[in-house]
Amino acid sequence: MKSTITDVAKQAGVSMKTVSRVLNNEPNVAQKTRERVLAVAKELRYSPNLAARGLASSKSYLLALLYDNPSPNYIANIQKGAIDACRDSGYHLVIEPLNMNMDDIGDALELRLERLPVDGIILTPPLCDDENLLDVLKRLKIPYVPVAPSREPDDVTSVKMDDVQASFEMTEYMIRNGHKKLGFIKGHPEHSASTLRYLGFVKAVEAAGLEVDLDAVVDGDFSFKSGVKAAEVLLTSKERPTAIFASNDDMAAAVVSVASRLGISVPGDLSVGGFDDTPLAQILYPQLTTIKQPIYEMGHMAASLLIKPPKPEDRLPSYCLDHKLIIRDSTQKSE
Amino acid sequence: MKSTITDVAKQAGVSMKTVSRVLNNEPNVAQKTRERVLAVAKELRYSPNLAARGLASSKSYLLALLYDNPSPNYIANIQKGAIDACRDSGYHLVIEPLNMNMDDIGDALELRLERLPVDGIILTPPLCDDENLLDVLKRLKIPYVPVAPSREPDDVTSVKMDDVQASFEMTEYMIRNGHKKLGFIKGHPEHSASTLRYLGFVKAVEAAGLEVDLDAVVDGDFSFKSGVKAAEVLLTSKERPTAIFASNDDMAAAVVSVASRLGISVPGDLSVGGFDDTPLAQILYPQLTTIKQPIYEMGHMAASLLIKPPKPEDRLPSYCLDHKLIIRDSTQKSE
DNA sequence: AGTGCAATTGACAGCGCTGTCATTTTCATT
DNA sequence: AATGAAAATGACAGCGCTGTCAATTGCACT
Q1: CB contact (8 A) between residue A257 and residue B257
Q2: Chain A residues inside the 8 Å CB shell of B53
Q3: How many angstroms separate the CA atoms of B266 and A202, rounded?
Q4: Average pLDDT of B226-232?
């Protein structure tokens, strides 16, 4: 039989309210009382009834993760991070896939929120840049945290990574390995990350006193297919690069595939770098050198910020989390 | 201001209880009354307070999805199916990643369930075969639906697909295309699907009056790497197969990759079939002919079964959902 | 010992809904 | 028109918790 707060109160010889105070970490409880209550609660394996709590406090103890991201991997990691953050705080995560292409996405969200009011929302890209959505959330006054938004809103805290710096590091790593002829494959032009990653590449090249060879910078759109096209251009040009940095793993995989078809050995004749550290990066042969985004960490941080918002005075406009350059087998020193 | 059931009751000129009955589709309400209440509810944009409902009815209107599956794609699809099923019934889905390798997985689950009691649980593989977990669920008397379990429990309804039949169809398709020398790459020996898929292959070969060439049946473990090894064996043997059926897409991708390295053209010289229809299957060049599992559908069905359990008299031991043979570019007629 | 103030504790209502059971209405049948 | 059973409706308590506010206790200081 599940025990209630009343059971704990009786057993500990205090009032329900005091038990409630202890369980919610409210101040003004004598240390001794607090310990006794905690001990009894543990003994009785008490855990509060979420519905009752929610009803009384008009909180839901629920966070929602909104997404419309084609990458299951990205979503899975964000989810995991958010769930882990929720777990210790008695919160839970509900997930809400949303379809970007529907015309009335704002209404759809509003309807969902009416049915299931949540205490906060995690917005993942590309949803975090949708004006309709943001308007609805502001109007409904629901706290939210955008993950990796294009433009940082000035009124809410967001969570992100530094694409420019990551891209800089990958490029610098290649240059440090003696590569001078560098190729770059851009991402989808409408994706803000594309610009940033290219920027980091340019910065690193220039920082090394080299020059960006614009003929070796090719457009792509993050798809494997576009990577194939780009790789064909780069690998059949007369001044073939010795290293190619693709803006994501799918395109990097395409480079490896095209190289293999053309009899160019990776990493012997060509180093290849990707971005994202998708499962693909380890499936491939050779395994891809790539950038691991702090996806899990961003999910974790976003949830934490919603559960325990920092005081207004030490609110940061955004939290930038650490990425990691993962060196695997697709890159090596230039001969 | 959010409206309550009382508002609707007043506006419709009935009692709260009648409104409640209408909203819960209970019988014994005059058709006229029902319509009136529904109209008012719509007008007021009323939607019930989940917490209050849960508290009063001691139901949670929450379903949990338990998983420890390395494939984000699989999970994402199950989730999507389950969520869509929940959406129309006022249910919501919370997700619970669980770690198979922890020693006290049963306790961990029990703890979670104490904190967040749910009305039902969807168990995905490989969790659905864990005795500890099943014991806990039975003891706690929480309804659950296993998805694609190895052994069908006799007391609960499960949801699955027909691996044997799917595998049979792929093989038959290859044979129908004139292939006589067929290679097969097995899956992980401890995964029940491996056996079933191999069985379907054997059945189809024999049904066609052919014989299974055991030299062309190679072990694998579902990983890309194991696929590479298997492909090397198959493609360098003197009696090279004209078609290879790999037990999953990762291994099929490995076959394509090895073939390309060896100068064997796919599908010109070699047809390749996979299983799962992972995103990889479409990323690859050529795109993989494969089997699409009804993952979304299984998630949907599992949730539906929990939300609205069939009457005991027409309970089925399991629901087998339709897979689909997806013919893409990695297979063609044998010359 | 007496005073005042802060720290601690408790009594109680009520969050929005559903379950129970009593009451009223409807309607086929005599 | 009278009767009875079934259908429709409503009154009310109470689910388990927290917010409000009042009551009590502890303690430093006269």
Answers
A1: yes
A2: 51
A3: 39
A4: 95
Nearest-CA distance B88 → chain A (Å): 11
Q: Specify the CATH number of the domain A58-160+295-321.
A: 3.40.50.2300
**CATH assignment of A5-48, given 1.10.10.60, 1.10.540.10, 1.10.260.40, 2.40.160.60?**
1.10.260.40
Enter the DSSP assignment of A109.
Answer: H
Phi, psi of A99 (to 5 degrees): -100, 110
The neighbour count for residue A89, using CB atoms within 10 Å, is 14
**Mean pLDDT over residues A205-215, rounded?**
96
Give Cα A14 distance to the centre of its chain. 45
Q: Are A218 and A245 in contact (CB under 8 A)?
A: no
- Is the model's pLDDT at A120 over the cut of 80? yes
Residue among B50, B93, B257 minimizing CB distance to A95: B93
B49 contacts A55? CB cut-off 8 A? yes
pLDDT tens-digit series, residues B98-135: 988 888 899 889 888 888 889 999 999 889 989 999 99
Those of residues 21-60 in A touching chain B at CB distance below 8 A are: 45, 47, 49-55, 60
CATH superfamily, with its number, for domain B163-293: Response regulator (3.40.50.2300)
Task: Determine contact: B268 vs chain A, CB below 8 A.
Answer: no
Closest residue of chain B to A114, computed from CA coordinates: B47
Task: Report the chain A residue with the minimal C-alpha distance to residue B98.
Answer: A80
Domain coordinates in residue numbering, chain B: 5-48, 62-160+295-319, 163-293
Q: Does B316 touch chain A (CB under 8 A)?
A: no
Please give the structure tokens belonging to residue B14. 């009935």
Asked if B25 CB < 7 A from strand D, the reply is no
Of A112-116, A169-173, B121-125, least confident by mean pLDDT is A112-116
pLDDT computed for residue A314 by the predictor: 83
Interval B149-172: pLDDT, tens? 988 887 899 999 999 999 999 999
B62-160+295-319 folds as Rossmann fold (3.40.50)
Conformational region of residue A28, where left means phi above 0, alpha means psi within -120 to 50, and beta covers everything else: left
Percent of chain A residues past pLDDT 90, beyond the cut:
76
Residue pairs between chains A and B whose CB atoms are closer than 8 Å: 101
- Total-model pTM: 0.90
Residue of A264, A280, A287, A288 to mutate, testing the B interface (most B Cβ within 10 Å of its Cβ): A280
Q: Do the first three CATH levels of A58-160+295-321 and A163-293 match, i.e. the same topology? A: yes
Shortest Cα distance, chain A CAs vs residue B256, angstroms: 10
Degrees, nearest 5: CA angle B83-B124-B106: 115
Q: Decide if B153 touches A, using CB distance below 8 A.
A: no
Q: Which residue in this structure is represented by tokens 């792509």?
A: A220
**Which tokens is B264 given?**
């064997």
